[in-house]
Amino acid sequence: MISMNIIKGLTDKGIRIASFEPHHADIVADLVGEQFPTTQTWRTFKRNRCLACLGLNKDQITLIQGSGKTCGATVDWLIAGYAKAEGCLLVTGDTREEFKNIMKTTLEHLESAVEQLLQEATKVSTT
After folding, report:
1. 49 is in which domain, residue-wise?
2. What are residue 105's phi and psi, to 5 degrees?
3. Which helix (H) or strand (E) holds 91?
4. In this predicted model, what pLDDT tens digit does every residue of 62-96 receive, in sequence order?
5. Smallest Cα–Cα separation from 82: which of 23, 33, 35?
């Protein structure tokens, strides 16, 4: 459990801690199920992701055993599910499977859009 001091510190800074509720988990399950319709495709994906995290190329690995059943999923699935459930726009450069079909933009695009809006607002206010 998070220390009350940490929670207070975050709250004092105006940071809201979002809760992850059952309906968020349902969205995560839907996202995973849409992209990986069978247990085997899901396990293969997790296994390959674990290999990639270790810097290994799945096409060059033939002697490593394991089906991927015990491999964990990334927290990105939880972030994607929460964002989809809440209608959030994610700011990320991550284009991997977890964020497929999720509203997202990159920080560079967001900064450019904000800059353009500020320039247009400045033009309007000076006329």
Report:
1. 19-126
2. -150, 165
3. strand 90-91
4. 666 777 777 777 788 889 999 999 999 999 988 88
5. 23
Q: Residue 13: pLDDT above 80?
A: yes
Q: What is the mean pLDDT of the chain?
A: 85
Residue 61 lies in a domain: yes
Residue 81: CB atoms within 10 A of its CB come to 23
Place of tokens 């995290």: 53
Q: Does the pLDDT value for residue 1 go beyond 80?
A: no
Tokens of 65: 């055993």
CA distances to 31, 60, 72, 94, 108 from 105, in Å: 19, 33, 26, 9, 8
Whether the Cβ atoms of residue 53 and residue 73 lie closer than 8 Å to each other: no
In a domain, 52, yes or no: yes
Q: Is the residue at 2 inside a domain?
A: no
Question: How many folded domains does the chain comprise?
Answer: 1
Q: Is the pTM of this model over 0.70?
A: no
